[in-house]
Structures are given as structure tokens and as C-alpha cells.
Design a protein that fits this description.
- The complex is a heterodimer.
- Helix content of chain A is about 25%, strand content about 35%.
- Chain A is an alpha+beta fold.
- The radius of gyration of chain A is 24 Å and the shape is elongated.
- By secondary structure, chain B is mostly helical.
- The longest helix of chain B is centred in the C-terminal third of the chain and has 34 residues.
- Chain B is globular.
- Chain B starts with 9 loop residues before the first helix and ends with a helix.
- Classes of the chains: A alpha+beta, B mainly alpha.
- Chains A and B meet through strand 6 and helix 2 of A and helix 8, helix 9 and helix 12 of B.
- Bound molecules: adenosine-5'-triphosphate and magnesium ion (MG).
- The site of adenosine-5'-triphosphate has 11 residues of chain A, from helix 1.
- The site of magnesium ion has 3 residues of chain A, from helix 1.
Chain lengths: ~375, ~280
């Protein structure tokens, strides 16, 4: 994790708003503090304003209102070419008329570095992305993954303070993508630059980031480390967007210090973690991850229980997905490891599904939610 | 000849044959007047027609006489020198202006794009005689008529549209994220232009420049209006030659002009192919 440098955050978005057409706000009040060396991912559905935020930071779009500060200094007064921010473009944007070496040398040449230093740096970064043999080739002669690595090396070679990556792995197949994720993480650990990363792929976001900012409709729904985001989503949008969740509807019955008690629509009373729904009588959704549900009452009296009817199961490989339905028709999914504990059911079997209170949260109801 | 499909009936076949014959005739009609000039320029006699000796291919009926005449005549030498001087300088100006205009007009945020484009291309569309007359009156007021500067500027104005068209063509599909990438890597907008945009649109710039040169090189109407005796170019000299000293030296110079034009057109075609190859390497 990143260490905070001084008391001022390294990079700061404060109340940033952006509109392209002077009518609708594409980014509504974006606030984010980034520490030096942190790996931040912007995650969100298409059109939620992620690219727009990067473009404002890189200086290709102006900020409608609010401020972006680097080391406490507003970037609006700095020209794009003077910001010292590296960027990996989604479509690589390698210069087709320059060889790979020339592409990598370009930012150094601009900075008027001595020839010998440029040569050494280019060699170093070619080695870093394992493309030593390809320095003399043109971008058109490389595969997609190789071009991607060149783009990455070119964005890093001039030691920028911040590196922006806009879905850099979007065009790659799964295997290459995983390899590149690993490579980016390795370089990040090795070189310690600050990353703002954009992706659609939540697994990518979870595995790579120090913190993830989940976007929707131009608003950051939650910005937190991956495990917090997954285990304690701040609202139903985040719970739904990151991973999978079972949703049981109910009403808040009583509120404790860090727990709330919820009366589910089918009458059962359950205890869950307190989240963004904290008033007695409010409609709520209890969200539980499929892998937190179990079949047995091994949990004892501490556990919550619901009755459900078995529908079907999907064999996935390392785990099995069981589909159930409660008496009011809510679908529940249980993920169970594919081992000796995996039970057998036949259609319409009644089962008791249980979970621990700390594995569930009482979140907003979609109709009462501010997210949609 | 292209193959006639086997399923064609007699009339169909006859029609296809007729089409091919007439196509060749049209081509011949277009190119014969030009080709005829070439052998005639080697005529030993001061005539514009084939002599007995030429038709029977006797070597002594041919000579380089008219070519020698050109290169010994100070009038022709001045004309050749003028043509190149005016052509090259007009090309340089047209290329610089046309490239800047095309790059600017390619921007999304350029206001009144269509209107400005139409305005800049108008010298290609407005009848030349009107442009020439307009230029003559305008330049006379500025004291530029009858001067090298006036002729060069006039020819630059005629050549600019060609540069705009060819450069615009290479700019369509230009990946502006390359410019952003360069900017992001620290290049100032000026460097982005020279390091990134220019190399990628160079084929368009060069072929535009060649078109601009040919335009100036062939041009006679504007010259008739604008040029004084000092600025006579080759076409202008041919024009007066036709009236004053009718002899085949005009044909000799015409042959030379044809050679220059062919060389330029071949260059343009080679550049076009190169651009195509570069573009396909981009993807
Ligand atoms: N140049 C532009 N002019 C006008 N509207 C734009 C422009 N760029 C983006 N938008 C709009 O702004 C909104 C946010 O776009 P943005 O590109 O930031 O989304 P995104 O989160 O990056 O989406 P994706 O995941 O699909 O890349 C979209 O509704 C889009 O239509
Ligand atoms: Mg985007």
C-alpha cells in the first residue's frame, strides 16, 4: 500500500465537474485523493465518465468546474506537454513511422537527454518489457500484446509522476491480459510510479489496485481497497457491480451499534452489518455473497437462516453453483467448493441456507436508491 | 482485351466487341495529338507535317535541329528559367499554405469548415480567365502586375487548392491519438506537427506540391494577364511562337514538357503507392 507523502495528497480531484454540451454533467462532483505510488482503478459501466476524468487529468479536456491538483498545484495552468504524465492509450498510439527504439527514445529526445543516456534507457526499458529483439522493428510488425508492452514502456521511460492507463488491456485475449496485468503490477512495484487505471473488468480491478473508485452516472459510488469494496460495498450498486450478490428484501426492524436486524419479506428475522440503511422501518436489501451461503446449520444460533427451494445447479469446475428460490420468489445462488462437502439435491427439495451476520449487509432498496 | 463470357450470345458478343473498339478509339483520340508531336519535333524541315522521308523512316529526315535551336535562343532559355523559377517558388508557397490550411480544416473544432474549404478551393472551379482578370486588376492596384512576385503569388494561389485536396486526403483517417500521445510525451504542438503529423502526411504534401508545380508549369492564361516580357514562361513563349516564328522548335519544347509531366505523374503514382503501404502497416 501507498504511504502518504506529507499532509497534502499527491494528486487531488476536488469537486470536479465536466459537461461537454453545457447541459448534462458527465462528471458530477468528482472527489479523489491519491497518494504517491498508489495504484487507483476507476471502474464503472460504459459512459460513466472514466475516460473523461483521465482526459481532464492529462490535459486533453478542460475541467468545467472544480480543480485538479498535483502536489497542491492546480494543473489547469499547465499545458498538456508540460504535465509529465505518462499515458497508455487504449489503441496503443505508437508512432507508425518510428521503430520501437525510436518510439521509446522520443520522450527522452524531447527532454534533450544525451545520446548515450537515451541509448542506455531504451535498452533498459526494452529489457523491462522483454522486447530486446524487437527494437529495430516498426509497430506494424508487432503483435497486439507486443505493441501493448511498447506503449507501456514508452509511457514509463521518461519517469513520469503519474501514469494513466485507459483500458490498456482491453484488446487482448484472456491469457495475454493476465500476463500483462502481472507485468504492469511488477513494474509498478519495481518503479513506484502512481497509476490511474481504467477498466471494465472487475477481476482486473480487484487483483491490481490499491484502491478502486466505482463510478456510476458521473458519481463515485465508493472508493476503497478491493477487499473492502467486495466485503463491505457501500450501496447496492457497488454490491451488484463488483462480484455477484444475493439480495433479500426486507424492512429494518431494529438498529444496534454495528448491526441491524432486518425482517425479511417472508417473515424471517436476520441480523446483518449496518451499512447505508440505518433507520427503523426503512425498506432494505440484505446482500450476501454466494460463497458466504452454506447449506448446514453448522453455524449454530449465531447464524441467519432462510428456507429455500432447490431449482438447479451449474457445474463450473472448481466450484458448483446452486440455484434456489425463496417462498416469495427471490432467487438465491450458493457457490460451494467442488469437494466432498458438495451436497446433492433433487428438484424442489427444501433446504435451509445459512450465513453469518458479518457476511451480509443491509443496503438500500433499488427504488429508494440514489444510484439509479 | 478482357475475356468475353462464354454464355454471351451473338449480339451480346458483338456489343462487347463494339464497346472495346470504341473505348480504344476514344483513348487514341485523346492521346494521338500528343503523341504526334514527338516524332514531328525531330523533323529536319521547318514544317508541322510529316515529310516523305519521315514516313519512310529515313534517318536523314530526322534531326535534333529544333532542340539545338531552343537551347541557343536566349528567349527560350529565359522562358525555361522563368518556368522553373516561378514554378518552384509558387510551389513552395502553395505547399506551405495548403498544408497548413488542410491541417487546420481537418480539426473537429474548426468553425465554418465547409465554407472556408469552398472558398479556398474556388480557384480550381472558377473559370481561369475570370480568376486571371480579377488577379490582374487586384495586383495592378498593388503594383504587382508585371513582376515576378505578382506571377509567383498568382500561381501559388492556383496551386494551393491541389495541396489542400491531397493533404486532406491523407489526413482523413489520421489517428489523432498519435498527436495526443506525442503531446503527452512532452512534445510542444509545433514539434508534434513536425515529428508526427508531417512524416505521416508527407506523401500527400509531396504529391500536392507536384500538382501545384505542374499547374504553374502549364499555366498560360494568368501569365498572359500578369507577366511582363521579363516573366515569360515556356507556355507563354510557345503561345507567341505560334504567331510569330512558326517552326517546330515549339514541338521540341512541347516534347520536353511532356517528358517533365510524365516524370512528375510517375512520381505522384509512386508516392501514392508508398502512402498506401505505410497506411496498411499502421493497422
Ligand atoms: N468529446 C465528447 N463530446 C461529447 N460527449 C462526450 C465526449 N466524450 C465523452 N462524452 C460523453 O461523456 C460520457 C462519459 O464518457 P466517457 O468516455 O468518460 O465514459 P467512460 O466511462 O470512459 O466509458 P467507457 O467505459 O465506455 O469508455 C458519455 O455519455 C459520452 O457520451
Ligand atoms: Mg472510456
Amino acid at each position: 500500500m501507498a504511504e502518504q507523502a506529507g499532509d497534502k495528497p499527491f494528486l487531488q480531484f476536488t469537486n470536479v465537474k465536466k459537461t461537454y454540451d453545457h447541459r448534462t454533467l458527465v462528471v458530477k462532483n468528482f472527489n479523489l485523493d491519491v497518494a504517491k505510488g498508489e495504484f487507483i482503478t476507476l471502474l464503472g459501466p460504459s459512459g460513466s465518465g472514466k475516460t473523461t476524468c483521465l482526459m481532464m487529468l492529462a490535459g486533453f479536456e478542460d475541467v468545467t468546474s472544480g480543480e485538479i491538483l498535483i502536489n497542491g498545484r492546480s494543473v489547469t495552468s499547465i499545458a498538456p506537454y508540460a504535465r509529465n504524465i505518462g499515458m497508455v492509450f487504449q489503441q496503443y498510439a505508437l508512432f507508425p513511422h518510428m521503430t520501437i527504439r525510436e518510439n521509446l527514445a522520443y520522450p527522452l529526445k524531447i527532454r534533450k537527454k544525451p545520446k548515450a543516456e537515451i541509448r542506455a534507457k531504451v535498452d533498459e526499458y526494452l529489457a523491462l518489457v522483454e522486447l530486446q529483439a524487437f527494437g529495430g522493428r516498426y509497430p506494424g510488425q508487432l503483435s497486439g500484446g507486443q505493441r501493448q508492452r511498447v506503449a507501456l514502456a514508452r509511457a514509463l521511460i521518461f519517469a513520469p509522476d503519474i501514469v494513466l492507463m485507459d483500458e490498456p488491456l482491453g484488446a487482448l485475449d484472456k491469457k495475454l491480459r493476465e500476463q500483462m496485468q502481472f507485468e504492469i503490477k511488477r513494474l509498478h512495484d519495481q518503479l513506484g510510479f502512481t497509476v490511474i487505471y481504467v477498466t471494465h473488468d472487475q477481476t482486473e480491478a480487484l487483483t491490481m489496485s490499491d484502491r478502486i473508485a466505482v463510478f456510476n452516472n458521473g458519481i463515485v459510488q465508493q472508493c476503497a481497497p478491493p477487499h473492502v469494496l467486495y466485503e463491505r460495498p457501500a450501496n447496492l450498486f457497488v454490491a451488484d457491480f463488483i462480484g455477484e450478490s444475493n439480495k433479500l428484501k426486507g424492512v429494518i426492524a431494529s438498529v444496534g451499534d454495528d448491526r441491524v436486524s432486518v425482517r425479511l419479506d417472508d417473515g424471517a428475522q436476520v441480523s446483518t452489518l449496518k451499512a447505508n440503511c440505518t433507520e427503523v422501518g426503512l425498506p432494505t436489501t440484505v446482500s450476501i455473497r454466494p460463497e458466504k451461503l452454506t447449506f448446514t446449520d453448522r453455524l449454530g444460533s449465531a447464524g441467519n437462516q432462510v428456507k429455500a427451494r432447490y431449482i438447479t445447479r451449474h457445474y463450473v469446475g472448481e466450484y458448483i453453483r446452486y440455484h434456489f428460490e425463496t417462498s416469495d420468489g427471490t432467487e438465491l445462488v450458493v457457490k460451494n467448493m467442488n469437494d466432498s462437502s458438495a451436497p446433492q439435491f433433487s428438484a424442489n427439495d427444501e433446504a435451509v441456507l445459512a450465513w453469518l451476520p458479518q457476511d451480509s449487509q443491509a443496503l438500500d432498496r433499488p427504488d429508494a436508491s440514489a444510484t439509479s | 482485351m478482357s475475356k468475353i463470357p462464354a454464355y454471351f450470345g451473338f449480339w451480346h458478343r458483338f456489343g462487347a466487341w463494339l464497346l472495346q473498339v470504341s473505348s480504344w478509339l476514344v483513348l487514341l483520340f485523346l492521346i494521338l495529338p500528343i503523341l504526334v508531336i514527338v516524332p514531328l519535333s525531330f523533323n529536319v524541315e521547318p514544317f508541322f507535317s510529316f515529310t516523305e522521308g519521315m514516313l519512310t523512316l529515313q534517318p536523314e529526315a530526322y534531326s535534333l535541329r529544333w532542340y539545338r535551336e531552343i537551347f541557343n535562343d536566349p528567349k527560350w532559355l529565359l522562358a525555361i528559367q522563368n518556368s522553373f523559377l516561378i514554378g518552384i517558388l509558387a510551389t513552395v508557397i502553395a505547399t506551405a499554405l495548403g498544408t497548413c490550411a488542410a491541417v487546420g480544416l481537418a480539426r473537429d473544432d474548426m468553425p465554418q469548415r465547409r465554407f472556408i474549404t469552398a472558398l479556398l478551393l474556388s480557384p480550381m472551379i472558377v473559370p481561369l480567365i475570370i480568376t486571371a482578370a480579377g488577379m490582374f486588376f487586384f495586383y495592378s492596384n498593388l503594383g504587382l502586375a508585371g513582376s515576378y512576385l505578382g506571377v509567383i503569388l498568382a500561381h501559388a494561389a492556383l496551386g494551393t487548392p491541389f495541396v489542400i485536396i491531397t493533404v486532406t486526403a491523407t489526413l482523413t483517417g489520421f489517428d489523432y491519438s498519435l498527436a495526443r500521445a506525442a503531446l503527452n510525451l512532452g512534445a510542444t504542438p509545433l514539434r508534434v506537427f513536425f515529428d508526427i503529423i508531417m512524416p505521416l502526411i508527407r506523401p500527400g504534401v509531396i504529391s500536392g506540391a507536384l500538382f501545384a508545380f505542374i499547374t504553374s508549369f502549364d499555366e498560360v492564361v494568368v501569365i498572359l494577364f500578369m507577366a511582363g516580357p521579363q516573366q515569360r514562361t515556356i507556355p507563354r513563349q510557345m503561345f507567341s511562337g505560334l504567331r510569330e516564328q512558326i517552326n517546330p522548335s515549339i514541338l521540341a519544347i512541347a516534347t520536353l514538357l511532356i517528358l517533365v509531366s510524365i516524370a512528375l505523374l510517375v512520381t505522384i503514382e509512386l508516392l501514392r503507392r508508398r502512402a498506401e503501404r505505410l497506411r496498411s502497416a499502421e493497422d
